[in-house]
Amino acid sequence: EPQVNYELRKPGKTLMVLAGATLQQNSRESVWLSATGYTSDALLENLQAAPSVTIQNHSSSVYRYAALYGRANLNLKERYLLNLTLRRDGSSRFGPDRKMANFASAGGAWLFTEEKTIKNVLPFLSFGKLRASYGVTGNDQIPDYGYLNSYSTTTYPYNDVPGLVQTRISNPDYSWESNRKLEGGIELGFLNDLITAQVSWYRNRSSNQLVGYPLSVVTGQPSIQYNLPALVQNTGWELEVSANPLKKGRVKWDISLNLTAPRNKLVSYPGIEGSSYANTYAVGKSLFVKKKYSYTGMDSETGVYTFKDLDGDGKLTTANDREFTKSVAQELYGGLSNRLSYRNFDLDVFIQVVKQSGWNYLYYSSFLAPGTFNTSSRGNQPVWVLDRWTSRGDQTEVQKFTTTPGTPADAAFTAMRNYGDNVIGDASYVRLKNISLQYNLPAKGSFLKKSRLFIQVQNGWTWTRYKGLDPENMGPVLPPLRSYVAGLQLAI
């Protein structure tokens, strides 16, 4: 990675220029041997002792990457900052006419608190900076030789002659994935940075995504490497606030808050209606929106779940009656951190906050329809299913119990689990993630140095309305463990 730096300093102006290159090559070779028929476990690590040794796979690959880049930084009067970057990258993972690509970025900032006018008008503002940037980056993180046809030997000969089977279809036309990132923000400090705040907005647009595009089975291959003609946008706001409310004598209190509000949208996808993603994504909606039956409530007369019949034909079909309604995604997440110190005591508390929607317990096959039971221990249900429909006119969110497969209630439950949008619900939570209290033993006049007593609690308390085991993991898996740790650390 050769580099050349140039720096020019003059009163009120600093210019730094960097030019460089990258030349990289990775070579990999692997052999997979299968040895069977050992007469003793003591010989398992000796291939020569195996009556049968088979080469299951022997592969090698070479990856080459090259780049030329340049960067210029300009600083005027310690208040106007400008950064420009330009690079040209090449990768061996693309076809002969697609190996090279150009990328660039630009960023600027203004430290407006260095202006005399701002200092005079807003003396309580100790720091202030406006910043903005825009850049394009690339991605080549795909397997080697994806643009070529590839073949593997087969263990099933034809007419006693070993043969080859195709393992990949060539596509020499796919190229670099592109990501365009736009960001702007403001950073503020108040009262000699007693309080600091930062607000930023970002927009990332990804195009030419490198994916394995699904193919029909008649092609002989499940997919082909492909540049997806989709434009995906991720936007969001980020807030960070820190403060030191108390900083007097032996009492210190530090508090910080961070919040992020992400949003996602499929901006465009030409021809999506005829693609294999027609039932997975919709233009103008989030990638996390699911195509499901729209739940219309529980029928108080029959006691079973009902769904919207979009085409009005009196029956539900996955082809005509599903629509993009609910998403499985985070809307807001963040945390609140507190640190309080008094004399030799330190108290740290961190609270996690997440607003999101997710799969509730009804989505997972670990739970059967309420009322159904079998011998595989899948008969347990949450207590709230007891608030079920029992007689005509009941208004409840839980349909009647059923013990017989094929009944209307069982069919409604199956439709809800597989295709209904009411398996998606509120999975927001507030969690006391960590709390730690420690006492630092006095070292003065003692043989002990930096010794302490401490108590720590992790995942101590969770508030949520989520209908499931845990809103963070969502699935039928072990939730984060609540742990208590107490100890004494001695340093002599």
Major sheet details = 16 strands, antiparallel
Q: How many beta strands in the DSSP annotation?
A: 22
Task: Determine the structural class based on helices, strands and strand pairing.
Answer: mainly beta
First-to-last CA distance = 47 Å
User: Overall 3D geometry?
Assistant: globular
Number of helical stretches of at least 4 residues: 2
Q: β content, as a range?
A: over 45%
How confident overall, as mean pLDDT? 91
Topology as a string of helices (H) and strands (E)? EEEEEHEEEEEEEEEEEEEHEEEE
Rg over CA atoms, rounded to whole Å, is: 31 Å
Characterize the structure shown:
With 492 residues, the chain is mainly beta. The chain is built from 2 helices and 22 strands. It has helices spanning 116-121, 408-419, and strands spanning 3-10, 13-36, 52-76, 80-91, 100-110, 125-139, 150-153, 164-168, 177-190, 195-214, 223-248, 251-268, 289-292, 295-298, 305-307, 323-327, 330-342, 345-359, 424-426, 429-440, 452-464, 483-489. It has a 16-stranded antiparallel β-sheet that branches. A two-stranded antiparallel sheet has the order 7-8.
Record keyword descriptors for this entry:
53% strand; mainly beta; 16-stranded antiparallel sheet; 492 residues; two-stranded antiparallel ribbon; 2 helices; single chain
Please give the structural blueprint.
Layout (H helix, E strand, L loop, with lengths): L2 E8 L2 E24 L15 E25 L3 E12 L8 E11 L5 H6 L3 E15 L10 E4 L10 E5 L8 E14 L4 E20 L8 E26 L2 E18 L20 E4 L2 E4 L6 E3 L15 E5 L2 E13 L2 E15 L48 H12 L4 E3 L2 E12 L11 E13 L18 E7 L3
Antiparallel strand pairs: 1-2, 2-3, 3-4, 4-5, 5-6, 6-9, 7-8, 9-10, 10-11, 11-12, 12-17, 13-16, 14-15, 17-18, 18-19, 18-20, 20-21, 21-22
